[in-house]
Amino acid sequence: MTDATLPFADLERVYEHLAETLDELPEEQERLFLAQLALALAHRLGDVERVIAAIEEARRGVEDTST
Q: So which domain of life are we looking at (predicted)?
């Protein structure tokens, strides 16, 4: 199985929209929004192992920026 990926320009577009959406939310709603977004995307992806791998990839990305 190959993992489908977005072209860089589309990924930038997603990032911009996500950043704008987070900026519009009250800070106390950001975590809930991100959790709901993750679950909505996981539901659409439909593969629990790929979802878990993405969660771990995101965690490593956050850990890498904090060191």
A: Bacteria
- CA–CA separation, 45 and 4 (whole Å): 11
List, for residues 30-44, the tens digit of each pLDDT value.
Answer: 999 999 999 999 999
Question: 3-state SS of the chain?
Answer: CCCCCCCHHHHHHHHHHHHHHHHHCCHHHHHHHHHHHHHHHHHHHCCHHHHHHHHHHHHHHHHHHCC
Cα radius of gyration (the chain)? 13
pTM (two decimals): 0.82
